[in-house]
Prior knowledge:
Layout: H1 16-46, H2 51-59, H3 61-79, H4 82-97, H5 105-133, H6 139-146, H7 148-168, H8 170-189, H9 213-240, H10 247-263, H11 273-293, H12 297-325, H13 331-359, H14 362-369, H15 371-388
Helix pairs in contact: 1-2, 1-5, 1-7, 1-8, 1-9, 2-5, 2-13, 3-5, 3-13, 4-5, 4-8, 5-13, 6-12, 7-8, 7-10, 9-11, 9-12, 9-13, 9-15, 10-12, 11-12, 11-14, 11-15, 13-14
Amino acid sequence: MGVSRGATDPNRLFTAAFIALGLAELAYFVAQGVLIQVTPLFAKNELGADPLGVGIAVGAFSVTALILRPWSGRESDRRGRRPLLVIGAVVATLAILGHIPTGELWVLVVLRLALGVGEALFFVAGFAMLADLAPPGRAGEALSFNSLALYLGIALGPVLGEWLLDGWGYGVAWGAAALLSALAAGISVGLPLTGRAAAGTDEPFVLIHRGALWPSIGLFTGVAAMAGFLTFVPIYGRDDLGMAASGPVLLVFGLVVVGCRVLFAKLPDRVPPFRLVAAALVAVAVGLAISGLERSVGGLFVGAAVMAAGVAFLTPAVFAAIVDRIGPGERGSAFGTVTVFIDLAFGGGPVLMGLIVDAADVPVAFIAASVLPLAGALGALTVMLRRRAPATT
């Protein structure tokens, strides 16, 4: 029997379905957090990958995810969100289990490609279901609370992964991540079937939804910077700064995001979205620059915290901007576009930073990468000013 949507009170945010969706995503993203910590170390130390190889291995999942996002969004509009959530989590579970016997870099890359399939299905459907469940005018607040699952995953997953790795090795770490992903699939089975009734089956397929394009580009610049940072923190912390464990840096990052989203959950629905996007991207850029300029453990922690403050408001602002402009029958396609740009960011950010690290070092890569969110902030301000400009006659 599925979880009730709590439709008797359309203004209620914390329904049983909203909470169940958050728990499914929490299990899934803690599993992904384990992979964030363990995968770069596995590629470098066990498979002998150089910095570029690490970046390629970490970002490989984005290739398949990128290809499948638009189709996944379209299918979630046609068939509902729940089936894609379940199938995506199951595919991720199987791909993670495949890591256990892996002994070659190319096999790891193939498995990361398989993870991209699961990511495309689960992530798009989760975004679209959240939009379905959010009360009118509270989309930004809904994402602020729902996204705690993602950033608790980033905060807790790496710490769990490092603890499992240090105590029992890679096999146990992979097994725990697979178990969490399977739990996400099990919870998703009980979610309501939203989206299907609102979608028109004769809507044309679109690769890029125009209404979501500019918000997605802004999101891309911030996420690419963040993805590169998260990829090279474990290596930089251990190898360059001599930290016994780099997981606490990612813990601080995740907790700052969580704290900001809880304390300021209503802000994305009250501030013009592109203004908030621009401010958030500036904070991401400043955090990266601090991490690169102050070559110390303290600088890394401060930079991670400042970047996290920007990340905290970036996605809710983008989410609110899209939900306000796009109807229920197109949300899957719109968030398919959003997640295409997220995939490009998670795939391209580590590769770009890996190239810079290969030519220089990690701090230089952090500084250079800070230019990307600054460009995104300028773009967001430009869009905002153009929309305010009066029409000419």
